[in-house]
Design brief:
Layout: E1 3-4, E2 7-8, H1 10-15, E3 21-26, E4 31-36, H2 40-51, H3 56-70, E5 71-72, H4 82-88, H5 93-106, H6 111-120
Antiparallel strand pairs: 1-2, 3-4, 4-5
Helix pairs in contact: 2-3, 3-4, 3-5
Length: 121
């Protein structure tokens, strides 16, 4: 890494692997799923969904997109596409809540963040 006065260059920063993948137990399914941290542009995309409103349609879309963006296969590739993410929303709410709660936690999206998004919409 090239450092200037102890600081990383933009090239060094861009080369960092800073999107960790987490194994998340889902007891309702007797398995684990893998969740990847969001990129900054992906988080902005999610925030834009909520900024359009906070009705059931927007909340459902926020949750579906969170799963779509975070759930990955063993090799790190996306697990879901548009259709499968919609189908997943038909599964157990308890299992989906486990995944969504952990995805929010992994990505530092707190209850206060969600309240602020709702307030600003």
């Amino acid at each position: 890494m090239s450092q200037d006065n102890g600081h990383l260059s933009i090239g060094d920063i861009l080369a960092l692997d800073d999107l960790p993948v987490h194994e998340v137990p889902v007891p309702q399914w007797n398995t684990t799923v893998r969740l990847r941290s969001l990129r900054a542009d992906e988080r902005s995309e999610l925030e834009a969904v909520v900024s359009k409103g906070t009705g059931p349609k927007e909340i459902k879309e926020f949750r579906r997109r969170l799963l779509l963006l975070c759930m990955v296969q063993g090799d790190g590739s996306p697990m879901l596409d548009g259709e499968s993410s919609k189908a997943l929303m038909q599964k157990s709410s308890a299992a989906i809540e486990v995944i969504i709660d952990r995805a929010l936690e992994i990505n530092g999206i707190t209850a206060k963040d969600r309240e602020q998004l709702v307030k600003n919409s």
